[in-house]
Amino acid sequence: MAGAPGAFSLREVLAAFQTCVTERREVLLGPYLCGWRGLVRFLHSLGAIFSFISKDAVAKVQIMENYCRGEQREKYVSLQSMVEYELANGLVDVQKRSGHPDSGCRTVLRLHRALRWLQLFLEGLRTGQEDSRTSVICTDSYNASLATYHPWVVRKAATVAFCTLPPRNAFLEIMNVGTPEEAVAMLGEALPYICEVYGITQELFAQHKLLDLP
Question: pTM score, two decimals?
């Protein structure tokens, strides 16, 4: 699979998230969405098991790319400029979804929640043993993040599907960076950047009371 057109590459995700945060701790939306496109390819490479997450992520990335290319694109250069612009202009449905169901703030919040799950899952793969059960790693990561926001039926279907996941080394091969040991090393390099982006986003959204947007 390595080198195949459109194949997932952890190196690509690392490069994107490395350039995501400015010296002023602003999160640039261009690299952020580029990193997400790479993560979507990771989800796709795992098959239909993760389609309930990957389809939503694809839709959310598309919405944000449209904002970044739209008439107000200068307002969507960074996460901070987007939040400031949308809140100042009443473009965020804070209480219930109505006139602005797909605001940038709401859309990024959904990606933000999914990023937490991926961050936990990839960290579990990195620190796990060769015989670690990926179904357990994935379920634990899901329960600590996305499960909170999914109805019972989705949670049940997800945890059943996770039982069919391949062994840990198969996941590490999907990273397309060489041996399992090389994949673990690159995960160790990439995850701090993903964690930083997640942390800044969490702080920004908490500051503006945006973490529970409907």
Answer: 0.91
